[in-house]
Each structure stands twice: as structure tokens, then as C-alpha cells.
Design brief:
Keywords: Oxidoreductase. The chain is an alpha/beta fold. It contains 15 helices and 22 strands. The chain has two domains: 273 residues, Aldehyde Dehydrogenase, Chain A, domain 1, CATH 3.40.605.10; 190 residues, Aldehyde Dehydrogenase, Chain A, domain 2. The strands form six sheets. Strands 14-15-16-13-12-18-19 form a seven-stranded mixed beta sheet, with helices on both faces. Strands 9-8-7-10-11-21 form a six-stranded mixed beta sheet, with helices on both faces.
């Protein structure tokens, strides 16, 4: 990888500047455990500088005062610059997080879609709307940018997640300070290069890789008007509490424990191709993964007979090889967490059907075999808590009503799937499951449509016109 300015400087207010300290983030390879290099680690002083630049750009600069169509032209250019860096971003994400190339490509394809979608939002959102009401009243409803936005993203899809958040924020006319996680900063700093090349006005965007304490400083900053966060539910609760102290606006996209319900009328060869990978894609490090498979009791063994050979045939290994299906976990602590849940599942009495250990021949790297537990009770911890690893639990049911109850008996509600030949039955089940997105006879995250969760899976929506709404304040101007 060629020398880049982001290896020594921070991107603050649209310019590469010297960091306030010599603190650095070392980036280990999840597949070899060797260092990939390091980048500057932002400190609270850097956050203060970025927020000050964003505040000035919002209060005095041209960005929020441009027409939405003018801002859209800049977003088109960002998308073009992201596309130019596609191969480099894909390789970087695979190296620093351990995602197989196919997964990395899919994430970065989505990033481009998000910029393209955001660049057309002005054609679908009424920033001004004439209103009349009783007694001859009339006026205009104006939708204005909320202000300075703090954007905090996780490591499991940094460029895609950043794009999902900052593209609509910029389309709304907001200014943004983006804090990527310390585990995946390289590809996000390449996004900063794309933002610089697109020529956004001074102060509009900053990108500051940093750890938790710096993130907390950003969330609590009095000049930040809104916080948007993707990450764990535990962290989301803390962020929501901090924002509540000063009534800052907040959007949260948090954890998931999504269920895939299989009806008794559908052949499993129509289910396995999508459901088989829905729980373990990117080694299960996807918030919307289908990690609970809810199956008729009399079909559980039939499902296992189809699913186990598929899991055991999956190539686990070097994420840089095109035929690798599962790479390592992103961090050693993440592997430790997954292995602890596997131990808990055994203690709880679930039946370990396949996996549960480390793959043979992979002495270096944070790998875990794709794992299936069967005969799982939905009250077990492995059915209730987000594992964030390649672990799927199979939960039998005796009636459709019970299947829906199992799917809904969770603190989460982010994604889901229903598999049934009877379309009316499938749609009925889908409407009864309390979740933000649910697929019928397939699974996937539709990033250009509203995405977000019920219950402890989050607050607010991202994507499409629903995704720009949290970045807008609504004002009524009444005419005499």
C-alpha cells in the first residue's frame, strides 16, 4: 500500500493537519496478528478543533445556505471519488478487519449506492411546503438542517456505515464530524481522501479515528446538535443518556438477534442458499445477521441434515484469497467473546451440532469455526444475547403462533426473514414480527430503503427519505 497523507495527519475541516499529540493507533492483521501499520489517534483537542470548524461552517459558511440541488452536485462527486478508490478500499477493509474479498466488495458496492441515493434526495424531499388550514390560515413548512452532527461508527463496515450516515446528513445541509472505530480506520481515511477530492467547503467534514474516551468527548460536546451512532446496545444506552442531558438529537442503530422463521410447507433447498449464510456472513459480525433459525419441531433434523454439511464445507481462511468464505474475527477480544458464548451454550444444555472450536491449520489469526447449536430454548443466553460471531442457534416450534412469539421474545428487533410457499402466510408472519426490516423467502439488508430497529435495536431510521428526516428540523412560518 502506497504512503498516504492519512498515515501521519488527521482530516479536520476538510484539510490534513498535524495531530495534537503523538498518540497512534496500531492496526493488527486479524489473519496473521502482525502489524499493518499505524495511524494518528485523535484526542479531545482534535475533536474540539473539528467541532469548531463544523460549527463555523454551519453558522457562517455556504454549505447549509446552498440549495439542496447544489449540495447534491457535491455528493455526486463524492460518489465518483469513492468509486475511484474502490479497489484500495476493498483490499484495506479485508486486511484490517478480516472480511473476505466478496464481503468487502459487497460493502463497498453499497457505499457507492448510498452516495448515489443521497444525491437524489432533493428530488424526493420537500424542503419547503406551502400549507393552508382552517380559518384562512396559511404559511410554509420549512425543513432546515439540524446543525453539527457527530457520527460514530463501528469497525465491521466502516465506509458503508459512514456513507449511510454522512451522505444524508450532508444532503440535508449539516456539517459532520466522523469518528471511526480504532479497529478499522484505514479504509475510512481513504473515504476522507474522497471527501477532500470532491471539494466540499471548508469545515464541512472531519474524520477522526479514535477510541472510546475521545468518542465520549465528541458526544458530550456542547456545540454538537445531533449524534448518530452505530454499535452495541450498551454503548447506545450511554450515548442516549448523554444526549438526554442537553436534549441533543440522536439516532441509534444498535444490536440484533434476528430470527429466520421456516414454515412447514417450503422445501429446504429453497431456504438454505440464503438462510445458510444469513447468520454467518462476515463471520457473523453483522448486526442484521439471522442468528436464530426457528423451525417446525418435526423439521429440525431435516434442517440440520442440510445445514451441517454446508457449514462444514465452508472455506475458512485468508480473507485475501478469492475462494475464502469466512475470514477471522476482527479482534482477539472478539474471538474470546465468541468462544465464551460457545462455552455458555454447552453449559445451558444446547446441543452443539458442528463447529465450536478453532479451524485446524490456522495457528495464527482470530478464527472460529462456523458453529450450529440445536435444541435451543429461546430463554437461553445464546438465543437472547448478540454473539457477533459465526454462531447460529436452531430453535424448534410447534405452531406458527409460537414461532412468532419466539421471534418477538427478544430485546432486539432489527432484521428477520420468513420462508414459506404460502405467500399469504409468509406476509402474515412478516407483519406480526416486531422488527425494522424483514424479508420473505430471502435475506438481505436493503441499504437504500429505511433501515433501523424496534426495541433495543435502535432509534430512528437510515436510508432513503426516512434517512434524511433525522437531520432536518421542521419550522412553520405563518403568514398574516
Amino acid at each position: 500500500m502506497s504512503e498516504q497523507v492519512w498515515k501521519s495527519k488527521l482530516f479536520i475541516g476538510g484539510r490534513w493537519v498535524e495531530p495534537s499529540s503523538d498518540a497512534r493507533i496500531d492496526i493488527p492483521s486479524p489473519s496473521t496478528e502482525e502489524s499493518l501499520g499505524s495511524v494518528p489517534e485523535a484526542q479531545p483537542a482534535d475533536v474540539d478543533a473539528a467541532v469548531a470548524a463544523a460549527r463555523k461552517a454551519f453558522d457562517e459558511g455556504p454549505w447549509p445556505r446552498m440549495s439542496a440541488a447544489e449540495r447534491a452536485e457535491h455528493l455526486v462527486r463524492v460518489g465518483q471519488e469513492v468509486e475511484k478508490r474502490y479497489d484500495e478500499m476493498v483490499a484495506s477493509f479485508s486486511a484490517e478487519i478480516g472480511a473476505p474479498l466478496a464481503v468487502s466488495r459487497a460493502f463497498h458496492d453499497n457505499a457507492k449506492k448510498m452516495w448515489d441515493d443521497a444525491s437524489t434526495l432533493h428530488e424526493r424531499v420537500a424542503f419547503e411546503e406551502e400549507r393552508t388550514w382552517e380559518d384562512g390560515g396559511h404559511g410554509v413548512v420549512v425543513r432546515e438542517p439540524v446543525g453539527v452532527v457527530a457520527t460514530i461508527i463501528p469497525w465491521n463496515g466502516p465506509v458503508a456505515t459512514a456513507s449511510l450516515k454522512i451522505a444524508p446528513a450532508l444532503a440535508a445541509g449539516c456539517t459532520v464530524v466522523l469518528k471511526p472505530a480504532p479497529e478499522g480506520p484505514m479504509s475510512t481515511l481513504m473515504l476522507a481522501e474522497a471527501l477532500e477530492a470532491a471539494g466540499l467547503p471548508e469545515g464541512v467534514i472531519s474524520v477522526l479515528p479514535a477510541g472510546r474516551e475521545t468518542g465520549e468527548h465528541l458526544v458530550a460536546h456542547p456545540d454538537v446538535d445531533k449524534v448518530t451512532f452505530t454499535g452495541s446496545t450498551a454503548a447506545g444506552k450511554k450515548i442516549m443518556s448523554t444526549c438526554g442531558e442537553r436534549i441533543a438529537r440522536v439516532t441509534l442503530e444498535l444490536g440484533g438477534k434476528s430470527a429466520g422463521i421456516i414454515a412447514d410447507d417450503i422445501p429446504l433447498d429453497e431456504v438454505i442458499p440464503s438462510l445458510g449464510f444469513a447468520g454467518i456472513i462476515s463471520s457473523g459480525q453483522v448486526c442484521a445477521a439471522i442468528t436464530r433459525i426457528v423451525v417446525p419441531r418435526e423439521r429440525q433434523q431435516e434442517l440440520l441434515d442440510a445445514l451441517v454439511p454446508m457449514f462444514e464445507s465452508i472455506k475458512v481462511g485468508d480473507p485475501a484469497q478469492d475462494d475464502t468464505v469466512l475470514g477471522p474475527l476482527a479482534a482477539e477480544r472478539q474471538r474470546d467473546r465468541v468462544e465464551e458464548y460457545i462455552r455458555v451454550g454447552k453449559e445451558e444444555g444446547a446441543r452443539l451440532v458442528t463447529g465450536g472450536g478453532r479451524p485446524e491449520g490456522l495457528d495464527k489469526g482470530w478464527y472460529v469455526q462456523p458453529t450450529i447449536f440445536a435444541d435451543v430454548d429461546n430463554k437461553m443466553r445464546i438465543a437472547q444475547e448478540e454473539i457477533f460471531g459465526p454462531v447460529v442457534v436452531v430453535i424448534p416450534f410447534d405452531s406458527v403462533d409460537e414461532a412468532v412469539d419466539i421471534a418477538n421474545d427478544s430485546p432486539y428487533g432489527l432484521s428477520g426473514a420468513v420462508y414459506a410457499k404460502d405467500e399469504e402466510l409468509a406476509r402474515s408472519i412478516a407483519r406480526r414480527v416486531r422488527t425494522g426490516q424483514i424479508s420473505i423467502n430471502s435475506w438481505g439488508m436493503c441499504v437504500t430503503q429505511p433501515f433501523g430497529g424496534f426495541k433495543q435495536s435502535g432509534l430512528g431510521r437510515e436510508g432513503n427519505v426516512e434517512g434524511i428526516a433525522p437531520y432536518l428540523e421542521t419550522k412553520l412560518i405563518q403568514y398574516a
